[in-house]
Specification:
Layout: E1 4-8, E2 11-16, H1 18-34, H2 44-49, H3 60-65, H4 73-101, E3 105-110, H5 111-132, H6 138-144, H7 152-172
Antiparallel strand pairs: 1-2, 2-3
Length: about 170
């Protein structure tokens, strides 16, 4: 397993084994496929401004990545309409930064790249956690789970992503 992240002057040191980079890239590419550009209106002005659909995603992962900002359905729809396309752009940019900078061995990330990694790792964890229906008892579940359980690799991967995210937060602060 990698040593994760360590702080350095002006940035963060990342250290990964080739297999870890492969896993990270695969997971980020999957999330990148989910957060494709949002649908905008046929109206040219709305399209130019990035005004999109007011409808909440039906996919549970997308609903977790783009939660409703308000309890009131009308307020939530208005907010989503004006913000989701930009949020999708940001998530794609963060994922692309991670794909471009994820390398085997030791590498240095700038502070901006490390922040993009942090946001992208969070998106990957949210997506995987939603698919696995992770609860706060995830560590107990993993401890009791047999290594022969077909879910075991996914749960261990989720746990590893949690470790990486924690390591990166500590390196940044």
């Amino acid at each position: 397993m990698s040593s994760g992240f360590k702080s350095s002057k002006g940035g963060v040191i990342a250290e990964f084994e080739p297999a870890e980079v492969s896993i990270l890239r695969s997971l980020v590419e999957q999330v990148l496929g989910l957060v494709e550009p949002g649908h905008t209106s046929d109206d040219p002005l709305e399209r130019a401004l990035g005004i999109g659909s007011a409808q909440a995603p039906s996919d549970p992962v997308l609903a977790r990545l783009f939660p409703s900002a308000y309890e009131d359905a009308d307020d939530a729809a208005d907010f989503r309409r004006y913000t989701e396309a930009t949020l999708r752009d940001g998530k794609r940019a963060d994922a692309q930064t991670m794909l471009e900078t994820a390398k085997p061995g030791r590498s240095e990330l700038t502070a901006e790249q490390a922040q993009a990694w942090l946001r992208s790792l969070n998106d990957v964890r949210l997506a995987l956690g939603t698919r696995l229906e992770v609860t706060e008892e995830v560590h107990d579940e993993i401890a009791m789970m047999s290594e022969d359980d077909p879910r075991y690799p996914a749960y261990v991967t989720y746990d590893w992503l949690t470790y990486l995210q924690d390591s990166l937060v500590r390196a940044l602060w």
